Amino acid sequence: MFSKAADEEEAKEMVVTSGRIEKDIGVAHRVFLCGGDGFLLPPSNFAMVDNGIYRSGFPGKDNIGFLKTLSLRSIVYLCPEPYPEEMAEYCQARQIRIYQFGIDGSKEPSVNIPKDAISSALRILVDIRNHPVLIHCKRGKHRTGCLVGCFRKLQNWCLSAVVEEYVRFACTKTRISDLMFIESFDVSCMKQCVLGIIYRYHGGCGSQARRLGYGDGP
């Protein structure tokens, strides 16, 4: 499916806005035609999480044009495998820092998601110096869904809204073990860290403070 955009910035806005508010995340598979006859293809399951925070499946070389429009500073990579050479070279050339948290993608419920890795990844997300930042695993469903779910708890989202968002991306691949992890994850251990970052880098209890732990989520 093709949608016409006047330029790259408009194309990015079309994808980001649609991915954020629509129930149908099929927008992640649209191709955007820019005024200069170039094509911008977002990674699978791409969407905006919050200002300066994005999520997706594993980006490839076909997505580089679109990634350039995001002006990324950081990538939170949730797989244990080494980053593909071509994408690593792209990140190095664009001075994009890759934070890797090697979380096993096993379907076995006995394989636990490491809480320390999620906590460390959350610290990256709430630090505005790392923005814009892209979170991704292989398909942008399970590991990414767990991290975003825990981030939503930091934002005081109610659990039903957190679960709804996870299921919207995971669809028929929803894992009960992931939902149990999100529900049991204790964000109170993150509050002091979040407050410290807000006061030091966000200029006090402004909009970021309301979103991170003090706002009324969905």
From TrEMBL:
It is an enzyme of class 3 (hydrolase). One of its GO terms (molecular function) is diphosphoinositol-polyphosphate diphosphatase activity. PROSITE patterns: TYR_PHOSPHATASE_1, TYR_PHOSPHATASE_DUAL. It catalyses: 3,5-bis(diphospho)-1D-myo-inositol 1,2,4,6-tetrakisphosphate + H2O = 3-diphospho-1D-myo-inositol 1,2,4,5,6-pentakisphosphate + phosphate + 2 H(+); 5-diphospho-1D-myo-inositol 1,2,3,4,6-pentakisphosphate + H2O = 1D-myo-inositol hexakisphosphate + phosphate + H(+); 6-diphospho-1D-myo-inositol pentakisphosphate + H2O = 1D-myo-inositol hexakisphosphate + phosphate + H(+); 1,5-bis(diphospho)-1D-myo-inositol 2,3,4,6-tetrakisphosphate + H2O = 1-diphospho-1D-myo-inositol 2,3,4,5,6-pentakisphosphate + phosphate + 2 H(+). The keyword Hydrolase applies. The keyword Hydrolase applies. Its EC number is 3.6.1.52. Keywords: Hydrolase. One of its GO terms (cellular component) is cytoplasm. Transmembrane segments: none annotated. Pfam families: Y_phosphatase2. InterPro entries: PFA-DSPs, Prot-tyrosine_phosphatase-like, Siw14-like, Tyr_Pase_AS, TYR_PHOSPHATASE_DUAL_dom. Belongs to the protein-tyrosine phosphatase family. Atypical dual-specificity phosphatase Siw14-like subfamily. This is diphosphoinositol-polyphosphate diphosphatase. It comes from Vanilla planifolia (Vanilla). The lineage of its organism: Eukaryota, Viridiplantae, Streptophyta, Embryophyta, Tracheophyta.
